Amino acid sequence: MKPNPSNNKLFKVSRRDFVKIGALGSTGLFLGVPLGCKQDKNAFLTGREDAVFAPNVYITILGTGEVQLIAHRSEMGTGIRTSLPLVMADEMEADWTKVKIIQAVGDVKYGDQNTDGSYSVRMFYQPLRVAGATVKLMLMQAAAQEWQVDISECSAVNHEIVHSSGKSLGYGYLAEKAGALPIPEENEITLKDSKDFKFISKETVIYDLEDIVTGKAVYGLDVQIPDLKVAVIKRNPEAGAGIKSFNSDMATAIEGVSKVYKMESTAFPMGYNAPLGGIVVVANNTWTALKALDTVEVVWDKGINASYDSNAFMQQMQRSVQKEGQVKRQQGSATKALKEATKVIESDFLVPHLAHSPMETPCAVARCNADGTCEIWAPVQSPQWVRQAIAEALGIEESEVTINVTLLGSAFGRKSKPDFVVEAALISKEMNTPIKLLWTREDDIQHDFYHSNCAQHIKVGIDKNNKVTSWVHRTAFPSISGTANADAKGPSSDELCMGVLDMPFEIDNISCESLDAKAQIRIGWLRSVHNINHAFAIGSIVDQVAQAREMDPIDNMMDLLGSDRKIDFTALMEGFNNYNVKLEDYPYDTHRLKQVIQLVKEKSGWGKSLPEGKGMGFAAHRSFLTYVACVVEVEVDDNNNIKIPMVHFAIDCGVPVNPDRIRAQFEGGAAFGASLALKSEINVKNGAVIEDNFNNYLVARITDAPINTAVHFVENEEKPTGVGEPPVPPFIPALCNAIFMATGKRITRLPIKL
Amino acid sequence: MEKFTLNINDQKITIECAPDTPLLWALRDQLRLTGTKYGCGIAVCGSCTVHLDGTAIRSCSIPISAINDKAITTIEGVGKDRLHPVQKAWIAENVPQCGFCQSGQIMSAIALLEQNGNPSDADIEQAMSGNICRCGTYIRIRSAIKNAAKNNV
Ligand code: FES
Ligand code: FES
């Protein structure tokens, strides 16, 4: 298989880009010591210890045979720190036990590092395969030269180049020689056939596994550097509002407190970088800082969102979706078809604000140095963005900022925003000392970038032949961009492409509409983003439609999807966004969606008879270019306690790069969905968030999450697509539909209250 | 500031801190035992779970002055010489995703298995319901505990 050069901007290297040979010895000179001079049985496995072969930014082979692979995306639990290096290791025929993974600092030279939107594998699968294959070719060239044979007689096998005669040379041995070769052109590279994969699509455990279970893994708050002081901040309950006055006398009297001061607030909408401001306490250790903070008395000022009440806002949005909105996609005349319909199924759907509440709260270590440079250690999803934000906040060049990425104790989108890291840097600058900033759980839940609350109305018309003839979907929610832009009045079309405008049903009369709703608190993207709201509504109404048509829900869904086709959304509306990639490259293929539905039907025992109190529900949704169908089994007891004994997912994510981690994402995605469906809700009153910790912002525990989750893959050779976010959207309506079957109650509002 | 001599992971260590300092922050800030994590500070998430004389407790909610000479075991202590069978079971099931909650999960699981060598589903749910995992690794936690039980921890 030949790579397509146009896919591969990262590796535009020419023959002139000779590799730097690491002559790292004390003289700094290349000494020409004969290679492999050690007279042991490993003589031809390793070379000069200081030899370094680094043909691209991702791969380095040392004379010792160690292969260092760069993980340039952030590890927040998806396994990406393992999966992308695996791709390179596979193409280069490396021995995984000789691989060392090195986490990249934030730097544009690595290409996109924004670990968000479920696209790490999709974006880097091909380029990293090419990177690995390039290295393999160079090692083969080096061996062929050494043996004076034709390269066709050489092959790469488990960290060695083997000649057809049986002799072999190790990668370490060849490193120096390969480093002297010009980098091959991309059209000289041959990628492996998928049937020869050693790691890709196989089971490999995550690189950090043992460190995690022994407590050695380093997350943000675990970073230790000399002279660290701990900072905590008391923020105005209303995001962006300022401070009238404060009294810190008691706090400063506490032994170990270095300073209590006011950090300026940035008025709403402050964007994603600006600190919220507040009263900062810096102390010798965490407990002292927390205790001192508690004693600070503050008189808060009011800002423009002082009257924000999320309940009233929801009612207002719900009223608004009863009337026609701005039509963003239109086919035929839904109004006319609805008039002619013999049955109209309609319902409102409401979803509250939600908080990310990653297990590890936001935190960062910052050291502003005397020479004006700044170094950061933090759990961030987007180190390049953080680098920019810090440079801007401190008024220095990006080149003067180093961002070290620690492991992330989960993130779900929260840690892609740089605000908390900027806070740490500003405090370090103010204090002239290294700072570890802790966000308490209360800070985290009360000052998040919340998931958009949302009201929807869907109306479906069925004609006298039991055919669905019209579809009206209205949605109202505050836009994420409202956090940065005061003019953002409501949903953008990009946001509407997450579940509203990309509706795949073959219905003649369609109207997809949005209604304005203004952000009055920081809004941000949460795992699966607006798909959560829209898949919940669509997946639920479709079940009602099946009931009205007296059809099996899966048969009904297949009928709605209609013919096998690649839907040309760009012809149907202005400004269609296909997760930032071309529809030609990643089409919306109804055939692929139908395939996962068929598969989940077969595997889940769909249609089996169930005892009273049990139910099975179904939903399917494509998001982040991945097709997912889901069947949830539920048990509801007399006290309305909900148990989820079994979940089946059938998925088409193209080539599954690391199947075990994909399964893990789906198991976890179902648990995350269970949190949103059954437990979580953020309420705002007078501009302030009411919930403040896990005792009132509830999330799924072992008692609530699914007991079993099975993941079934559609096998194909399609390009890999994301798996972090796609599990969540269909799970929620499948659960709701299962509850309907078990209890007869329709769920139209989250979290579910029976 | 007061001096406290603690018995941590079979070692006696004296530290100086305010008597109301939660064990969690003493472990993390003073003793640099950072395997024990902060998740909520109010005993509802389980990230900070350690053993006090073999019982699982939330270290965020017990002050250093209440510990006296009771034996404290942290995640760093359980697998000091070689991996504990529960850690091995965790590896075999590839349980962790982000891993942040897992020290606490493992400490709760070890305490459970020490008291009950053959826990039922209900026993597991009861013992583990104080430990949140935002990544949702509950299915594998359940099976790792069962496997560890089978292998006679
Ligand atoms: S940090 Fe102690 S239980 Fe959450
Ligand atoms: S593994 Fe991430 S919170 Fe449990």
UniProtKB/TrEMBL annotation, chain B:
InterPro entries: 2Fe-2S-bd, 2Fe-2S-bd_dom_sf, 2Fe-2S_ferredoxin-like_sf, 2Fe-2S_ferredoxin-type, 2Fe2S_fd_BS, Beta-grasp_dom_sf, Diverse_Oxidoreductases. It comes from the Bacteria. The keyword Iron-sulfur applies. SUPFAM superfamilies: 2Fe-2S ferredoxin-like (SSF54292), CO dehydrogenase ISP C-domain like (SSF47741). Keywords: 2Fe-2S, Iron, Iron-sulfur, Metal-binding, Oxidoreductase. Residues 2-78 form the 2Fe-2S ferredoxin-type domain. The keyword Metal-binding applies. This is (2Fe-2S)-binding protein. It comes from Arenibacter arenosicollis. The lineage of its organism: Bacteria, Pseudomonadati, Bacteroidota, Flavobacteriia, Flavobacteriales.
